[in-house]
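Why do we care about 3D structure at all? Because function follows from shape, and shape follows, mostly, from sequence. That is the central idea of this module. The next example makes it concrete: a single protein chain, its amino acid sequence, and then its structure expressed as tokens.
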Amino acid sequence: MDMKTRIGSALKEAMKAKDKDRLSTLRLVNAAIKDREIAERATSEEFEISDADIVAILGKMVKQRKESARAYEEGGRLELAEKEHSEIAIIEDYLPKQLDDDETAKAVDAAVTEVGADSIRDMGKVMAALKSKYTGQMDFGRVGPMVKDRLSA
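And the structure:
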């Protein structure tokens, strides 16, 4: 089952269960997917959104909510920060499993070896290789410095 169908059926289940929080979050996800489809159809009649596109949308939504939660926490608005955290948990249910630190380090080493990187100038190639294989599975904001350290050593 593709991701769009999974999210659609989860939306229906949340409606039936009267789970307001889950329902509102899934509606936001669905709206973001539809927005992307509409934007792409303007340029190409035969655009079909892929699972990779949906993973990218979900990753962006999680990142936005983490930033909002941090801002709310700094502003002392803990109830709003908690709402953002609950939305993050719901969205992450549909993202691939995040790699832990050891798995991320192994993936970085494998990517460095794969592209034959030997200096910091090859960082772009390594990041491109990681993004092609691990989109949605790692935080590339954290991975960048790891790649840099690995290539600087």
